[in-house]
Amino acid sequence: MTYCVGLLLDEGLVMLSDTRTNAGLDNISIFSKMFCVEEPGDRALVMLTAGNLAITQTVWNLLQSGVWIGGKQQRLTDVPDMFAAAQLVGAAVREVAKQDGPSLAAQGFGFDCSLLLGGQIAGGPPRLFLVYSAGNFIEATVDTPFLQIGEHKYGKPILDRVVSQQTSLTEGVALTLISMDSTIRSNLSVGLPLDLAVVRADQMKICTRRRITEDDPYYRTIREGWSEALRQAYHALPRPDFVLA
Q: CB-based burial of residue 185 (10 Å sphere; 0-12 exposed, 13-18 middle, 19+ buried)?
C-alpha cells in the first residue's frame, strides 16, 4: 500500500508520496510513486500513484507513448489544459483496464489503482485531480483544497483542521510531512523515503523536488517536534471531574 497527498493552495501545489511497496510481510521494496512532466515556461505536472504497482507503472508508460482520445494520440506534453490532462490520465487507466483487467480477474485480483494529478499549464490556473480506477475523476476545490490516495485515514485529521487555500507553500510542506509521519507511525505499509514536489503558481516549473530520508534534518525536526507538541497538548488538557474515585 502507500500514502500520497496533494494540496491545492493559492501559492501553488504541494505533492508528497511515500515509496513503500509490499507484496507480503517479507517482500517489501522501494519504488517511487511520483512521476513528473515539466516544460519550464509552459507546464509542470506531478502525478502520484497508489494501488497495484504493475497497473500504475503501465499507466505511466502508456501516457509516455501516447493515448488515443478524441480521435488523436496525445501525451501530457500535448494537452491544452489541466482538465484535458485529467481526461487523458483517465483514458490511460481505462485502456490498461481493458488490456489487463480480464487476466487480473482470472487470477482473483481486482483492478486497483488511484492517481493524483496536480499542476499548471500556461493559460490556466493550478489544478488538482484524483483519478479513480474507473478512469473518472474529481477535482480539489476551495472547500476541500487537498486530496489523498492510499492509506489516507491516519494523515487526514491534521489536514481537516488546518489546511485552507490561504495556507502558504512552506506551511503546506510542513503539514504534508506531519500528515505522512502520522501515517507512517500507524501503518506498516507506508514508509520512507518520501518524494516531495512543489509547484509555485504561474512559474510553470517544479520549484522544489526532494527525496526525504530518515536522516533528513527538516523531517526529523518535524517528526520530533510534532510528537513533543502532541504530548504537551495532552498534558495541558483538563482531566474529567466526573470519574468516581
A: middle
pLDDT digits (tens, 9 = 90+) for 70-88: 899 999 999 999 999 999 9
Nearest of 210, 213, 238 to residue 223 by alpha carbon: 213
Helix (H/G/I), strand (E/B), else coil: 110: coil
Fold annotation for 3-234: Glutamine Phosphoribosylpyrophosphate, subunit 1, domain 1 (3.60.20)
Q: Which of 206, 212, 194, 203 has the alpha carbon at shortest distance from 37?
A: 206
Residue 122 in grid coordinates: 500556461
pLDDT of residue 27: 75
Rounded Cα distance between 99 and 90, Å, is: 14
b (16+ CB within 10 A) / e for 68-81: ebeeeebebeebeb
Give the three-state DSSP class for 33: coil
- In sequence order, what DSSP letters do the residues of 82-100 get, joined into one string? HHHHHHHHHHHHHHHHHHH
Identity (one letter) of the amino acid at 102?
A: P
Grid coordinates representing 73 are: 494520440
The grid coordinates listed for 17 are: 508520496
* Spans of the chain below 70 pLDDT: 23-25
